[in-house]
Design a protein that fits this description.
The chain is mostly helical. It folds into two domains: 66 residues, Helix Hairpins (Orthogonal Bundle); 103 residues, Iron/manganese superoxide dismutase, C-terminal domain (minor pseudopilin epsh fold, 3-Layer(bab) Sandwich), CATH 3.55.40.20. Helix content is 52%, strand content 11%. The protein has nine helices and three strands. It has a three-stranded antiparallel beta sheet. The chain is globular and about 50 Å long. Manganese (II) ion binds next to helix 2.
């Protein structure tokens, strides 16, 4: 019985826990938002992936593999959307941390200055990109080879399918901020960039890129 149960678990992907308590990002992002966003939205994407891969050759594969295997396939759009959103959300939780924001360490700061001119110029471009993404989507700091770029993606789209290495993500779907900021996406984005960005996570991602 234990073996069967273990096999069943191994064939599905799981909802990763938040890397901090639900109230840890308040007041920038409330516990109520994190409760819905992680416990309902993120969970729903994970549950749907498990439903869609059941009995297929993607059962038992890693989430990243499921994302890449379904990307650009017209018969796997629903799976791609749910798998990419599951991946994006785990990446987003790690892109934030309590008492984050500020400036990155030396190696990343040098890359930021080379790519954008200054930390303030980086912040302005990241903010503008996140605010101007029309409708649901994401803003990303990515490594493109040796240089850094800021990009936006619509809906569930993500840098992995474009050969870019994500360093940080900001979720700009309304569910990410509506309970706390209503329609004021610029206020949410500015607060996240100033107070929550996890530069240690970005540096780890850069080292792996
Ligand atoms: Mn979201």
């Amino acid at each position: 019985m234990a073996t069967l149960a273990a096999q069943k678990i191994a064939k599905s992907i799981s909802l990763p826990p938040l890397p901090y308590p639900e109230d840890a990002l308040a007041p920038v992002i409330s516990a109520r938002t994190l409760s819905f966003h992680h416990g309902k939205h993120h969970k729903a994407y994970v549950d749907k992936v498990n439903e869609l891969i059941q009995g297929t050759d993607l059962e038992g594969q890693s989430l990243e593999k499921i994302v890449m295997a379904s990307a650009g396939k017209s018969d796997k759009t629903e799976l791609f959307n749910d798998a990419a959103q599951a991946w994006n959300h785990d990446f987003y939780w790690h892109s934030l941390k309590p008492k984050g924001g500020g400036k990155p360490g030396a190696a990343l700061a040098e890359k930021i200055n080379a790519a954008f001119g200054s930390h303030d110029a980086f912040k302005k471009q990241f903010t503008d990109t996140a605010v101007k993404q029309f409708g649901s989507g994401w803003a990303w700091l990515v490594a493109d080879g040796h240089s850094l770029k800021i990009i936006k993606t619509s809906n569930a789209e993500l840098p992995l399918t474009k050969g870019l290495a994500p360093l940080l993500a900001i979720d700009v779907w309304e569910h990410a901020y509506y309970l706390d900021y209503q329609n004021k996406r610029p206020d949410y984005v500015a607060a996240v960039i100033d107070k929550l960005l996890n530069w240690e996570f970005a540096a780890q991602n850069l080292a792996r890129a």
